[in-house]
Amino acid sequence: MVKILFVCHGNICRSPMAEFVMKDLVRKAGLEKQFVIQSAATSREELGNPVYLPARRKLAEHGIRCSGKTACQLQAKDYGAYDLLIGMDRANLHNMRRICGGDPDGKMHLLMEYAGQPDRDVADPWYTGDFEATWQDVLAGCQGLLVRLMAESFAKP
């Protein structure tokens, strides 16, 4: 079983979009039982709040529901609970390392690494209002991540 935690600043836009896009991709591939997929924030400012309405709308445009999700914060213990901790941008990655006390096992990555763009952050719609750009980044990153994970699992003896 692969356990993935997507992380952004507030856990109301990018990381929940990644969580539910990845869950949708995994479901469509018939691999639901092989994954645990969640998301969290590096900050406390949105704790308990639902996914931001424009993010919910963008997911809904693609037939993806995220009802019941509320923002929660990354905790140090999450490092041991997940196989991969995927940040949406470099600031997230910095804060993830701070919260978890580093990344000794190399579990932390940026989502765009899996889209072949390791030096690029996922577009942040909080500042731009461009949820389509965020959707495109999240979809490309999650598709690439799933392809990589499937290839790695089939390569194991």
Task: Give the SSE map.
Blueprint: E1 2-8, H1 14-28, E2 35-41, H2 53-61, H3 78-81, E3 84-87, H4 90-100, E4 108-110, H5 125-128, H6 131-155
Helix pairs in contact: 1-6
Provide the descriptors you would attach to this structure in a database record.
157 residues, alpha/beta, globular
What features would you describe in this structure?
The chain has 157 residues and is an alpha/beta fold. The protein has a four-stranded parallel beta sheet, sandwiched between helices. 43% of the residues lie in helices and 13% in strands. It contains six helices and four strands, in the order βαβααβαβαα.
Distance between the termini: 16 Å
Can you count the helices?
6
What profile does the largest beta sheet have?
Answer: 4 strands, parallel
Helix content: 40-55%
Q: Give the CA-based shape.
A: globular
Which structural class do you get from the secondary structure elements? alpha/beta
Mean pLDDT: 96
What percentage of the residues does DSSP assign to strands (E)? 5-15%
Order of helices and strands: EHEHHEHEHH
Strand arrangement within the widest β-sheet reads 2-1-3-4
Low-confidence stretches: none
Please tell me how large the radius of gyration is.
Answer: 14 Å
Number of E-state strands: 4
